[in-house]
Fold this protein.
Amino acid sequence: MVDTVIVTPGATEAEEGWASAVSWPAILAGGLAAVALSIILFTLGAGLGLSAVSPWSDRGISSDTAALGSGIYLIVVAVMSSAVGGYIAGRLRARWLGTHIDEIYFRDTAHGFLSWAVATVISAAFLASAATTITGGAGAAMAGNRGALQDRLNGYSDELLRPNFAASNNSGGTPSNDQPRVQASDRTEVYRLLAKTQRGGSAMAQSDHDYLVQMVAARTGLSQADAEKRVNDIATDLKVSADKARKGAAHLAFWITASLLFGALAASLAATEGGGLRDGTWKYRR
């Protein structure tokens, strides 16, 4: 690499020492450009995702494929938007006079990184504000999540207390007078037991399990063995659902981390390209 110093008549070491090495207007311009491009690409990705999935089993892509595609697309968006923002930050920054090319290379890299940081902070604030607006506030969002959990637990309660009509009906097919009756209080109690297990995130307590088996057997007309099998199936389904949600959150965190790292790298490299073209020293850097 050729040792190059950009020198202009009148530039002194004192002037270089007092001048700031950070061009905030260029950094802010690059960050805003990256945010705007990210919004466009994310909107496009949402449309592509909705077009690719389908409620019909023979159409669309699977949930695993959709999750993988979403993660890869997240990285692509981060790289593209960050590279554009970094390039703009490098191309628009002020010219550093009397500075060695290696120092300029470092400053351009730092400007690209700072533009990525600005874009990341703005994007985080924008997404948080948008999510709050769409859901009608954080409280409404939490209430929506609780509502989804309540619906799922209510479905499990109905499944547990579903009567065994084949055993309780008489030979004529009409329900007998002594058929077990499920009370509203029974559903409430079952719901609370399931919610307790869901919040704990572990296996159902043995005492709760035994009590639930007895209740299901008494209220549905099932035998003790069949009632226990029904309770075990629901308990297993609860654990599978919780584990699936945990893995989904972990994978999303990994994809976001990867996209942020690749975005920072792309912004830094693109800023060096823009800065080199700005000063006409790009061929020396190669």
Observations:
- Strands lie at 5-6, 99-100.
- Residues 151 and 157 are 10 Å apart (CA to CA).
- The longest helix spans residues 224-279.
